[in-house]
Amino acid sequence: MNDAAYINLENVPDGSTPGSTISLAQVNTENTSCLSTDSCLSTEALTNSFNIVNQRFFQGGITGAIIWQVPKGMVSINKGSPCYSLNGSTEELTFEQATLAIKQGQADKALALLTPFADKGHPDSELLVCHILKRQHGEWQGYAKAYNDHFITEMMAPAACYYPDTQTIAIHPHLHRRGAPMFVLRYLIYHECCHQIIDSSESEPHTPLFMEYEEKAPFREKALSWLSKEGFPTL
C-alpha cells in the first residue's frame, strides 16, 4: 500500500480552506446534480470530480488520469438458477457407482442411480442422464435445459475500471446518456482510486483490505442501487 495515499474521511471539502474538515454525514447531503448537461459531459467536469474525491478522501495522493471510455475489461455475471450439491458420502458413493456403471456399459443401472440426483438439480447428474437418454432416444431435452439453466452467464462492461499500467481510471460513457447523478460518478471514482492504493489481482480484485476501504465510500449503497437498475454489474 502506498503510504502517501491514504483515506481520510474528514478531509477538505469543495471550496474550503486547508485545515477545515467534513464528515461523511455532510458528504452524503451534498448537491446531487446530474451529469446530463453538455457542460457536465466535458473532460474538465470529469477531472474536477476526480480532483474533489482525490483531495477529500485521499489527501491528493492518487496520481494518474481519468477519462470517459468504455472499460476494456468485461465482467462475467452468472444468472443461472441454483443447483443441488451431493449431500454426504452416501450420495457421493452412489454417484461414483453410477459413473462406474456407465463405463461398464450398464446404462439402465446408471440411469436409475443418477435420475434422483438429476431431478433435484445436480448438474453433473443432469448432464449424464441427458447423454444416456439421448442415446436411448428418450426424453432428454428436459434434463439438457435444466443443466444449461445453471450456467447462463452474461459478459458485461463495468461502469468503471482502473488500468494500473497507465494509472488511468476509465468511466463508462453510458453514464453520460443516462444522466448519472453526481453521487454515482464520485462513488465510482472513489472505488477506482482504492484500486491504486490497495494491491489486488485479476483473480481477487476486491480483497478484504480493499473492501474495508471501499465500504467507506460516500453514497455507496445509493450508487450501487442506481448502477444495478441501469444494468451495470456491481460488487
Question: How would you characterize the overall build of this protein?
Answer:
The structure is a single chain. The chain is mainly alpha-helical. It folds into 2 domains: 24-74 and 157-229, 2-Layer Sandwich (Zincin-like); 88-151, Serine Threonine Protein Phosphatase 5, Tetratricopeptide repeat (Alpha Horseshoe). 46% of the residues lie in helices and 9% in strands. The strands form 2 sheets. A 3-stranded mixed β-sheet has the order 1-5-4. A two-stranded antiparallel ribbon has the order 2-3. A hairpin with a 4-residue loop joins β4 and β5 (168-171). α2 (43-58) crosses α8 and α3 (88-103) packs antiparallel against α4 (107-120). The radius of gyration is 25 Å and the shape is elongated.
End-to-end separation in angstroms reads 22 Å
Order of strands, widest sheet:
1-5-4
Helical segment tally?
10
Order of helices and strands: HHEEHHHHEEEHHHH
| CATH level 3 topology of the largest domain | Zincin-like
Q: Estimate the strand proportion.
A: 5-15%
CATH superfamily of the largest domain: Metalloproteases ("zincins"), catalytic domain
- CATH architecture identity of the largest domain: 2-Layer Sandwich
According to DSSP, the number of beta strands is 5
Write down the Rg.
25 Å
Give the domain tally.
2
Helix-strand category = mainly alpha
Unreliable residue stretches: 1-41
| Average pLDDT for all residues | 80
